[in-house]
Amino acid sequence: MTLADYIEIETTRDELIRACKQAADLIRTRVDYKYILVLLFLKRLSDEWKKEYNEALKTLLEKGLDRKEAEVLAKDKSFHRFTYPEKYLWEELRKNINELPVRLSEALKLLAEKNPELQGVVDRLDFLEFTRHRDNFDILVQLFELFSGLNLGRASDSILGDAYEWLIGYFAPQKAKEGEVFTPSEVVDLIVRIVDPQPMDSVYDPAAGYARMLIRAYDYVKQKYGEEEAKKLFLYGQEVNPTTYAIAKMNAIVHGIKDIKLEVGDTLKNPRFKEGETFRKFDIVIANPPWNQDGYGEEELKKAEFYDERFKYGFTPKQSADWAWIQHMLASAKRKVGVVIDNGCLFRGGKERQIRKAILERDLIECVILLPEKLFYNTGAPGAIIIFNKQKPENRKGKILFINASNEFEKHPEVRKLNRLGEQHIEKIVNAYNEFKDGDGFCRVVSLEEIRENDYNLNVTLYVFPQEEIEEIDVAKEWEELRAIEEEMREVELRIEEYLSELKY
């Protein structure tokens, strides 16, 4: 079959998710699921290139070009999003399964060479190393054949994005045990809706992970203002783990986001985004950094780039970098910061209290949200969201909104021990933030003066606590029911006495 004969049958969301579930069953916990993501990405690039080739060929033939000339021109890179080496198209790789690991490694290496934006991305995982164990070779072949039944050339970005999200979420419990940070989709959605990015904004995540917060910011603007406006967003992220960075880049591409800028490196030590002689500033900064990360005490932070500007409110204790992350985010923001963080950083003393006090006195904190327990894969502890605003409206100055969302959850439909935020819970929290007023044991506006009196303690339960529902009691009805019970007891006692008297005779 020639490239021109390639028949394009669109793969549906259900078909793709079903294939992902089968792939997950194949590998279980035996091998890293990132190999599935790479194969899925390669299949997408291969099928997309074939689709672009056919569309270009059709256009050129309609313009009257000779078929042979048109077939050559249709392969020109001007018709394609990525340059794809034709001899490594999926169907070509399939012709010799025994050589699959070698050919896959060659394909990914060549893709990285021909597409600078894929360097350090598709060539990050080694299929030759992966298949040194014979069982892994069999798994690779089965995965390859499974994806061979899909046509991803015309599948929408949202469908591919959903597949990536499903796979990342499915393996999150396993990866959490290995130390990876995974933010539940509902928490990502909540924080993005609160910070409310607009077209033309720059959005930065200094602990990007799989870039899910940045992708959600893009989708939020797309849903609210349209795709063309979403394309006007400027997205930036930094991730310390090179393999996680590679998945983040692929994740953004399959979501249809072309202009995201991602860098590899330790953000606290060396922020990669710079402007002139200093670090870059962004309209909005959002992140779920590693909680209670150790190893970033005063001695270490003083070695960091721009430390005097980024950590000007104080140095964190060696055992927890929570307020180091927060300070970096504040220093990097022009307008708003939204951070998901350990609840303990709201009230711990010592160096953290001093930093908290300095930031509070500058009136930078706008809202503190206590989340429910058991939302996160790697801890049952209730996290918190802190919203900082450098451009507080006049009516919010000198005040902080505390939201106690500890009861706003439903049981997770797939993970027995977990809870999750439902849509109604997210809406309730976002509405409370937007309205910025007291609300029946759920939220309360607190003055900076009251927080000073509490020694700069930001523990949400200190300021707002869910009201217990008091059941109204109908006293008359309860009295009647009690009298009826007593009457029944007297009748039973009489019958027992009669029975005992009969036994005596």
Automatic annotation (TrEMBL):
Stretches assigned to the N6 adenine-specific DNA methyltransferase N-terminal domain: 22-147
EC top class, as a word: transferase
Membrane spanning stretches: none
UniProt key word Glycoprotein: no
Any Pfam family: HsdM_N
Enzyme Commission no: 2.1.1.72
InterPro entries xrefs: D12N6_MeTrfase_N, DNA_Adenine_Mtase, DNA_methylase_A-5, DNA_methylase_N6_adenine_CS, SAM-dependent_MTases_sf, T1MK-like_N_sf
Keywords: Methyltransferase, Restriction system, S-adenosyl-L-methionine, Transferase
SUPFAM superfamilies documented for this protein: S-adenosyl-L-methionine-dependent methyltransferases (SSF53335)
Catalysed reactions listed for this entry: a 2'-deoxyadenosine in DNA + S-adenosyl-L-methionine = an N(6)-methyl-2'-deoxyadenosine in DNA + S-adenosyl-L-homocysteine + H(+)
Domain DNA methylase adenine-specific: 157-471
Presence of keyword S-adenosyl-L-methionine: yes
Coiled-coil spans in chain: none
A single GO molecular function term of this UniProt record: N-methyltransferase activity
Biological-process GO terms, alphabetical: DNA restriction-modification system; methylation
Name of the protein: site-specific DNA-methyltransferase (adenine-specific)
